Amino acid sequence: MTVVAKPTARPANPNFSSGPCSKRPGFSLDALNNACLGRSHRAKIGKERLKDVIERSKKLLGVPADYLLGIVPASDTGAVEMALWSLLGPRGVDMLAWESFGSGWATDVVKQLKLKDVRVMEAPYGEIPDLTKVDFSRDVVFTWNGTTSGVCVPNGDWIPADREGLTICDATSAAFAMDLDWPKLDVVTYSWQKVMGGEGAHGVLILSPRAVARLESYTPAWPMPKIFRMTKGGKLIGGIFEGETINTPSMLVVEDTLDGLKWGEEIGGLPALMKRSQANLAAISAWVDACADVAFLAADAKIRSNTSVCLKIVAPWFAKLDAEGQQKAQKAIVSLLDKEGVAYDIGAYRDAPAGLRIWAGATVETADLVALFPWIEWAVAETAKSFA
After folding, report:
1. Any idea what the Cα angle at residue 108 is, between residues 104 and 111, rounded to 5°?
2. Helix (H/G/I), strand (E/B), else coil: 237
3. pTM over the 0.90 mark
């Protein structure tokens, strides 16, 4: 049995969870001092703050000028559901699923919307469906980055510019960290608490002109809940994309989001944010190459996420355990790291194979990851004493 000495150096910030994600470096509550609390979000000051979020977000992400960006209820989940319920129906649908959230969207389309012409193209955790088999005469729904599997699409080259259907992309753990190919995307959703370390409850919905045309030319056959309605009298409700939110937003959360966006601007914009995430993935890759006890869940480096990095434990003692034993051992490893205060909530997602998930988005410092690695090796060795 391998003996690993307990490390002495600790990460300055032990928050490696994929949600809520770590705040930006140097964050303090003082950044929220100017929040317009106690004021209506429909008052001039509230609308100005919300519009500021919209304009800064579009600029930082490089969203095309003719695309619309709106703040919507219920985090990324709400944004995706708004798109699915409002846009799907006129064409057949290809649903791509290689992890929990993609599978969830497929379930909603098949079992809730009950669309008849649906193809669900699946791949196991760590892999991706054959993208060459996607039919773009149909609408296509996919996650750019699978948060629970650590697998992302390699780029947007597989999507044709002259497609007939719409592309609906859940980009919640990709936006601000990966190079989204905007001309290939008709609907994009994300939430503030991911790469920018914002707080929860609100989502972002981005629409291309093609998506707007669909909204204004198609009325779904099913009843539409109020918080999903984006049109009135056959026309888009433009105020949603000007800061007039469907329901009451938290102005404290809005202020926090503005703080994150300003930080992103100050450090060099989208290229700097992506560079930080890529540097974090590079550090993890170097460690995995040198560590015999862990490996990437995604064997193909071309589809590895640089935000939600998913690892499997390959120590010989761990591999001998059955699935239930591996789940228990994973929990023991995660519990040790939590107890030591060096890493919080880095266990694999509940539906994923037993292992670890380390958030490596732009708000995480590479030095903290480097300090974490010896602790993981120690925790694996300590847990082996009880399970080997």
Report:
1. 120
2. coil
3. yes
Task: Give the pLDDT of residue 1.
Answer: 64
In the chain, alpha helices (H)? 44-61, 75-87, 100-107, 209-217, 251-266, 269-290, 316-319, 323-339, 366-387
Q: How wide is the angle at C-alpha 17 spanned by C-alphas 383 and 192, nearest 5°?
A: 170
From the list 80, 79, 114, the residue with the least C-alpha distance to 97 is: 80
339 near 359, Cβ under 8 Å?
Answer: no
Q: Which residues of the chain, if any, have pLDDT below 70?
A: 1
Contact partners, residue 306, CB within 8 Å, separation at least 6: 152, 177, 178, 274, 277, 278, 280, 281, 360
Q: Using alpha carbons only, give the angle 86, 91, 94 rounded to the nearest 5 degrees.
A: 90
d(CA 31, CA 260): 10
Q: Give 68's strand partners.
A: 207
Query: CA-CA distances (angstroms) from residue 329 to 66, 178, 385, 386, 388?
Result: 51, 33, 11, 9, 10
Please give the angle made by the CA atoms of 148, 308 and 88, to the nearest 5 degrees: 55
State in Å, rounded, how far the first CA of the chain is from the last one.
8
Locate CATH 3.90.1150.10 in the chain.
Answer: 269-387
CATH homologous superfamily for 269-387?
Aspartate Aminotransferase, domain 1 (3.90.1150.10)
Q: Residue 194 and residue 192: Cα distance in Å, rounded?
A: 6
Q: Which of 244, 227, 201 is nearest to 47 (CA)?
A: 244
Residue 319: CB atoms within 10 A of its CB come to: 10
Q: Give me the amino acid identity at 72.
A: V
- 248 membership: H or E segment, kind and range: none
Q: Establish whether the linkage from the previous residue to 20 is cis, with ω within 30° of 0.
A: yes
CA angle at 269 for the pair 364 and 79, rounded to the nearest 5°: 75
Strand partners, 97: 122
The strand pair at 118-122 and 235-236 is best described as: unpaired
What SS3 class is residue 316? Answer: helix
Q: Which CATH number fits domain 29-265: 2.60.40.10, 3.20.20.70, 3.40.640.10, 3.30.565.10?
A: 3.40.640.10
